[in-house]
Amino acid sequence: TAIPRRREVPALPQGVTAEAFQTAIADLRTLLGAEHVEVVDKALQDGWYMEHPNTHDMMTILDDEEFVASAVVYPGSTEDVQAVVRWANKHLVPIFPISMGRNLGYGGAAPRVRGSVVVDLGRRMRQILDISGDDFTCLVEPGVSFYALHDEIQARGLGDQLWVDVPDLGGGSIIGNTVDRGVGYTPYGDHWATHSGLEVVLPTGEVVRTGMGALPGNNTWQAFPYGFGPFSDGIFSQSNFGIVTKMGMTLMPNPGGHESFLYTFQKEEDLAQLIEIIRPLRIRNILENVAQLRHVTQSVAVRGLPRTNFYEPIDGLVPEDIIHEAAAKSPTGDHTWAYYGTTYGPPEVRALKLAAVDAAFLKIPGARKVDTSTFPADEYFWSRDRIASGTPDLHELRWCQWVPNGSHIAFSPVSPIRGADATALYALAKQRHAEHGIDFFPAFCVGLREMHLIVEIVFDRTSAQKKAAALACLRDMVDDAAKLGYGEYRTHLVLMDQVAGTYSWNDGALMKMHETLKDALDPNGILAPGRCGIWPKRYRGRGWEM
Ligand code: FAD
Prior knowledge:
This protein is an alpha+beta fold.
């Protein structure tokens, strides 16, 4: 879809005149080559997941013109990235790095400050620099997607040895997903925890390598993440302190087989007992991966049919009995909760774990192990099975079709793995969804000692009223959750100030430290101002927060 422009084109960064911008762009073209710089002066083009725009958020929840780039630049090397950063300091133009820009639900490719120049690393920096079948590690550039790494491992004949951990959608960048602390669904699902070594261009243009990478001639950059001295990697995740140009990642050894399983639970109130059952199994690694406990509405929506297929009115919630009726007609059958899990290892090892899970889950009255052997090939269960065994997939996108022009935005608080916490979060989110007239899609993703509740709000991005309702619902849930002690693990650009504000212990001491770091590393405040609520001093306190 082409979106006509309604404000000045290109969107100039505040404080930069049209003339100064033209001079700066001419300079950038000289530095990188004219073919690697594009001014965004035409209608914005929305696409779909695989052909997404790099100029704005194709799932925008605000006005299309709010988070929009003035230009996009395509560096081809670390040296090019350094040149772009030095250029931004010279002209005081804000820049916003993306690896591939598929951060849908969290802002896509959009910059937080209107008129920033998007630095699209993924178009030209897409080398897989190393895959080690001995150490089970790799080294990648920002443009390497989960699909690309998976395919290369197969092409090198290493597919029966090495697994890549993949998120629900495999088209994203390994670096982009990891620096945003994204998650996948094998036992290596915590991507940040499984990375090892970064190369980073700092906001003033110097390049650093973290961990063992700082030792010239080292041979363990991808094997030992820490090196010597402070562990600095953390400040380059969910931040605006540097541009990551290379990253090491550990790869999972093929465990010698896997088996996915599906249990369903009938009643809404089974949630508390089920979570109490899951916790010890998960901590003891009987449940081995970040499994998902999904609500029936999402089970119905992921079939890819619009809600009008089940319920004609376009406003109000689809009644629960209609949702259950639809679930009953699906291969999974009627349920309120569906648990998708996978067990790993040779058959005899799997059998022991599966028996322990079975005995524990079937304690809940009405619990059912679903026979998946007759499920058709395009049933969602098989997508979960592929993802849990390191094969990238796109099936998850289907629930976006629940409403016309389906877009989504996520509420994702962290909590202990306790029945009482699950119930409290579920209740507050359900109530807020009802108040705002939004169908409720909760899923609990259980990590090792905590869980994320992921609630996807699906909205029609062409409807100002639906967007406003989705945003109001989110803002209410973030505040309600924070009052009960729950914070978001990650958030959309539009909510970053609010979420950062909830992490306010000791008079906002953590944010004060982040601001001190920001001002030291980025004295001109050119790199992704406002990302994760961190504003450089040039912007701070001038009304940018939202
Ligand atoms: P990018 O968009 O490139 O990066 C994300 C952000 O990180 C950027 O905006 C930028 O601020 C920063 N950044 C990126 N690269 C750099 C860099 N090199 N240096 C400094 N900063 C950088 N996510 C999950 O984690 N798990 C899921 O299971 C999951 N499921 C999803 C399901 C659906 C249906 C949808 C639509 C989305 C889902 N997502 C999920 C969210 C998203 O699709 C992925 O996280 C995706 O991998 C992020 O896009 P990307 O990798 O292209 O990152």
